[in-house]
Amino acid sequence: MQKSVIKPPAQLPRYIRISDADNVAIVVNDFGLPAGTVFACGLTLSERVPQGHKVALADIAEGADIVRYGHVIGTATRHIAKGRWVEESGVRLPAAPPMDQIPLATKVPLPMPPLEGYTFEGFRNPDGSVGTKNLLAISTSVQCVAGTLDYAIKLIRRDLLPRYPNVDDVIGLTHSYGCGVAINAPDAVIPIRTLQNLARNPNFGGQAMVVGLGCEKLAPEVLLRAPAGKNADIMSLQDEAFTGFGPMVASILEMAEARLEILNRRHRETCPASDLVVGMQCGGSDAFSGVTANPALGFTSDLLVRAGATVMFSEVTEVRDAVHLLTPRAVNVEVARALIREMDWYDTYLDRGGADRSANTTPGNKKGGLANIMEKTLGSIAKSGTAAISGVLAPGEKANTKGLLFAATPASDFVCGTLQLASGITLQVFTTGRGTPYGLAAAPVLKVSTRTELATRWHDLIDFDAGRIAAGEASIAETGWELFRLILEVASGRKKVWADHWGIHNALTLFNPAPIT
Ligand code: CA
Question: Does residue 311 register a pLDDT over 80?
Answer without folding.
Answer: yes
